[in-house]
Amino acid sequence: MKLHIIVTLGFSAALAVTSAAPAQVMLDLNKVTCDQFIKYKVADPKLITVWLSGYFHGKRGDTMVDTQRLNADADAVEKYCFKNPEAPLMPSVEAVIGPRN
Predict the structure, then answer these.
(1) What CATH number has the domain bearing residue 73?
(2) Percent of the chain having pLDDT more than 70?
(3) Cα separation, 32 vs 30, whole angstroms
């Protein structure tokens, strides 16, 4: 009986460790549509928005983060994507946010 309990506990511990390991998933945002973005099909839209903000700021060489602007931009992109679900995400973000100095 003790052996059965030990084996069961060991198996349960092995499953817990295995299921806790995070999966590594790469995401090409050039292939993501607005529909996928707003419906959480690829990741949390807020996380993607933060990454996109960093990406576009990096392209401009801008290291400043305006957190209020970040929220406003995320809302504007979401609103655009609801109206244009088939649109690709990256050009949509560029269209909504546009170049800034």
Answers:
(1) 1.10.890.10
(2) 72
(3) 6
